[in-house]
Amino acid sequence: MEYVYAALLLHKLDQEVKEENVKKVMTAAGAKPNDAKIKALISALEDVNIDEALKSAVLTPAAAPAAGAPAGDAAATEAAPEEEKKEKKEEEALEGLSSLFG
Known about the structure:
The protein is mostly helical. It has one domain: Arc Repressor Mutant, subunit A (Orthogonal Bundle). The protein contains 5 helices and no strands. The protein has helices spanning 2-12, 19-28, 35-45, 50-56, 74-100.
């Protein structure tokens, strides 16, 4: 995951996402770069428009339960499946985004 973070940081700073730059970021962060992982990342990102991938990702925080709602409240139990569906969709969207970055 740290390799993806390095690529995102480089992209955010308008630096070219290439092997050499990812290695520099990883080294500067105190990690020992793995050449195979870096090559795989660069290869996976070759045809990816990072801006578009980030725009299409749904990154919303999960809804917190209502404060003070009784445990046996019917409205709270009816809302739970809806929240679970939302969370599952969000997780699927994040999984799709992570697959873009190897």
